[in-house]
Amino acid sequence: MKCTLSKEELKFEWLMFDFDNTLVDFHESSRLAFDQCFIDYELEQKSDYYKIYNAINAKIWKNFEDKKITAVDIREQRFTLFLKEIGLVHLDGLAFNARYLDNLIKFTTVRPEVKEMLVKLKSNYKLSIITNGLKEVQRPRIEKCGLTKLFDSIIVSDEIGVAKPDVAFFDFALNTLDQSIDKSKVLVIGDSIHSDIKGANASGLKSCFIKSNKDQAVKADIVIDDVLELPSILDDIYVPVDCGWYDYLEIYAMRKNKVEIHYVESNTHNKIITQILDLQTKNKEEFVILSDGKRIRLDKVKQINLVD
Ligand SMILES: [Mg+2]
To answer: Ligand 1 center to residue 156 CA distance, Å?
Structure first.
C-alpha cells in the first residue's frame, strides 16, 4: 500500500472504477467462459489453448486501444485467428466469439465484500464505472453482479466509440455527472497502467493503481494490492488484521522484546525501536501500546523485526 497524497488531497468527491480486474476477477470469468465454449461446441480442449487465445486477444485489444482497429474487428478477429492457430478453420470465429461473450456474462461474479464496500462508498461519493469493453456484454455483466444501481454513471468504451487511455474517454466520463466538477476531486481506480493510470494522468485526474501481483513502476498517486484496501486510505477506516498476525504481536507484548516496528502514519512510512507493552481494542479498532505510551493502530503496522 502506498499513498503520496496529503489528507487534504484525499478528500475526493467522485470515484471512477475500472471494471475488469478492478471490481471483478476477469481472469477467472474469462477462463471459465472460454472452457465452457469447448463444452458447448463439444470440442476437445488442449491445455495450451487458453494461453494461445490470451496472447492473440491481448494483441488485438492493444491494437484497439491504439486505434489501429475497431471494436467490430475485435469481435471478428480474435477467435477467427485463434481457431486458425489451433487448426479449427471450419468453425465460425464470429459465432464462437458470441458464445464466449454469452458465457462471460454467465460467469462474471463479484465478491460480496466488494459489493459491500461500494454500498458504503456510495453514501459519501459519486461512483462511476469506466470500462473498455464490448457493449453487448459490459452492462449485462455489471447487471449480473447486481452493481448497476450502485453507480451514478457507467461508461462503456464501445458505446461511445472511444476507449481509455484516450483523454476524450475521460472527458466524456466527466461530463456524465457534473461538468463543473473540480478534477482534483476525482480519483480513477484501475489495474491497467496503460489504459487507467496513464489515461488518468493525461486527463489531469488522480489515480489509484491496483497492482495485484504485478511489480511494476508506475506513476500513480495511490498503489494498492486489492480494491478492498481503498476505503482505509480514503476514510482511514480500520481494516481488521489477520488472526495470525494478531497472535504474533501478542507474543511480542508478552515477552516484552525490543522490536523495530515499521508502520504507516499520515501516509508516510515510519520506523521505531521500542517494546510492545500491550494490545488494546477500542471501538472495534485494535492497537499496539508501546513502552513510551504511544499507540499504533494494528492495520498501520506493516512489519516487526526483533532487535538483539
Ligand atoms: Mg481492468
So the answer is: 12
Say whether both 58 and 170 belong to one domain. Answer: no
Are residues 122 and 215 located together in one domain of the fold?
yes
Over residues 56-81, the mean pLDDT reads: 92
Of 235-239, 267-271, 275-279, 290-294, give the lowest mean pLDDT range. Answer: 235-239
Name every residue whose Cβ is closer than 8 Å to that of residue 43 and which is 6 or more positions away in sequence. 88
Q: Are 137 and 104 in contact (CB under 8 A)?
A: yes
pLDDT at 267 over 70: no
Instruction: Determine the distance separating the centroid of ligand 1 and the alpha carbon of 20, expressed in angstroms.
Output: 4
CATH code where residue 146 lies = 3.40.50.1000
Dihedral Cα 235, 238, 239, 241, nearest 10 deg: 160
How far away, in angstroms, is 22 Cα from ligand 1 center? 6
Distance 4 CA to ligand 1 centre (A): 22
Q: Which helix (H) or strand (E) holds 300?
A: none
Residues with Cβ < 8 Å from 57, sequence gap 6 or more?
Answer: 78, 82
Q: By the 8 A CB rule, do 196 and 166 touch?
A: no
Number of domains in the chain: 3
Phi, then psi, of 206 in degrees rounded to 5: -75, 155
pLDDT per residue over 220-236, tens digit each? Answer: 999 999 999 999 889 77
pLDDT of amino acid 27: 94
Domain that holds residue 249: 243-306
